[in-house]
UniProtKB/TrEMBL annotation:
It holds the Pfam family Zn_ribbon_IS1595. InterPro entries: Transposase_Zn_ribbon (IPR024442). Residues 145-163 have a biased composition (Basic and acidic residues). It comes from the Bacteria. Residues 11-59 form the Transposase zinc-ribbon domain. This is Transposase zinc-ribbon domain-containing protein. Residues 121-174 are annotated as: Disordered. It comes from Salinarimonas ramus.
C-alpha cells in the first residue's frame, strides 16, 4: 500500500474518521467520564475536525486525547504518515528523511519519532540479558571475599582495597 493511495493519509477529516473507527468501534466514548451515551459532535461556525462534547461531564474531547498524539499541533494525517513510515520501513526511516517526506521541520519529526519510540518502549517488556524474559529473584546475597588486590586509579584516592565484591541471587525452591 502506498501512502498517497489511502485518503486517511492525505485528508484531515478522513484521518480522524480512520482513527475513530479503530479507537471507538462502537461510537465515541468520553475519556473523562467513560460514557458514550451522551456524546455529540461539537457544533459551531467552524468546528475543529474530530471534536466531540460529552453532555454528561460537559467537557470537549477528540480521539487524540490520552494518546501520544495529544497536545501536538501536527495534523493527524501527517502523524499517520509518520507512524506508517517509522513502523513499516526496514531499516527505519531517519529523522532527516522523514522531515523531507512530510514537509515539516526536522525538530518536529525528531519529536514525533521520540514520542513514537517512547510509547513503543513503554509497551514492550524489557528482555533479560540473554534475550528471554527477565527473571525475578526471591533471595539475594552480597558478600565480600578475599581476592586479588584492586587498585582505584584516581590520583585523589591513593589507598588500595584488599577485598573483591561478589553478588549472587537465586530463585526460591530451585
Amino acid at each position: 500500500m502506498h501512502i498517497s493511495s489511502d485518503p486517511a493519509f492525505c485528508n484531515e477529516e478522513a484521518a480522524y474518521r480512520f482513527v475513530e473507527a479503530r479507537v471507538w468501534p462502537d461510537g465515541p466514548v468520553c475519556p473523562h467520564c467513560r460514557r458514550g451515551d451522551r456524546v455529540g459532535r461539537l457544533a459551531g461556525k467552524e468546528p475543529r475536525p474530530g471534536a466531540y462534547k460529552c453532555y454528561a461531564c460537559r467537557k470537549p474531547f477528540n480521539v487524540k486525547l490520552g494518546t501520544m498524539l495529544e497536545s501536538t499541533h501536527v495534523p493527524l494525517h501527517l502523524w499517520l504518515q509518520a507512524l506508517f513510515l517509522l513502523h513499516a520501513c526496514e531499516p527505519p526511516v531517519s529523522v532527516n528523511k522523514l522531515h523531507r517526506i512530510l514537509g515539516v521541520s526536522s525538530r518536529t519529526t525528531w519529536l514525533m519519532s521520540q514520542r513514537f519510540r517512547d510509547r513503543l518502549a513503554a509497551t514492550t517488556p524489557e528482555p533479560g540479558p540473554q534475550g528471554g524474559p527477565r527473571m525475578t529473584f526471591d533471595e539475594e546475597e552480597e558478600s565480600e571475599t578475599e581476592g586479588r588486590e584492586r587498585t582505584v586509579r584516581r590520583p585523589e584516592r591513593p589507598h588500595r582495597y584488599d577485598t573483591t565484591r561478589s553478588f549472587g541471587a537465586w530463585a526460591a525452591g530451585g
